[in-house]
């Protein structure tokens, strides 16, 4: 009986990427408040500003968030979608478009699940995902690449062109 209780209380370490290019400060602050309500042990990266990718639009702010949860992957993703909906995410817009808020589950423990896109393939594609992930988890090992995020970030920096500006989260979201 105790073993079942311990299994039921297993906490997963997760990493979420928050992005917004509409009312950025307000929407990201609201998303962080809602994440704090739904998850525990919240740690927040700096804010990373980058140009819109794949379309013309205002610059995005992106923030990485580490948290723990007792929810499974499906339920965790559902919570993130509900937060997006509460903040005003319009799902009828094209994938590459301006948005109020975007919450992506980037990591769920060391789970490798292609259907759930875990670890999220954007980690290796976009500086605005990898930089905040690295800031919070430099020594953590990517479950597929088997390299630390610090090494992945160094390799990314040396082989990709990107524009990324880092701001202290507490100064921007006052």
Can you describe what's shown?
The N terminus is likely disordered. The longest helix has 15 residues. α4 packs antiparallel against α5. The chain has 6 helices and 5 strands. With 174 residues, it is α+β, with helices and mostly antiparallel strands. A 5-stranded antiparallel beta sheet has the order 4-1-3-2-5, with helices on both faces.
Distance between the termini: 47 Å
- Specify the CATH homologous superfamily: 7,8-Dihydro-6-hydroxymethylpterin-pyrophosphokinase HPPK
- Tell how many strands the DSSP assignment holds: 5
Helical fraction: 25-40%
**Series of H and E elements:** HEHEEHEHHEH
Biggest sheet layout: 5 strands, antiparallel
Give the neighbour order of strands across the main sheet.
4-1-3-2-5
Query: Uncertain runs with pLDDT below 50, 5 residues or more?
Result: 1-6
β-strand amount: 15-25%
- Helix/strand/pairing category: alpha+beta
Tell me the domain tally.
Answer: 1
**Overall CATH architecture:** 2-Layer Sandwich
List keywords for this structure.
174 residues; alpha+beta; Alpha-Beta Plaits; 6 helices
Architecture blueprint of SSEs:
Blueprint: H1 2-8, E1 12-20, H2 24-38, E2 40-50, E3 60-69, H3 73-87, E4 102-108, H4 127-137, H5 149-159, E5 165-167, H6 169-172
Antiparallel strand pairs: 1-3, 1-4, 2-3, 2-5
Helix pairs in contact: 2-3, 4-5
Outline:
The chain has 174 residues and is an alpha+beta fold. It has six helices and five strands, in the order αβαββαβααβα.
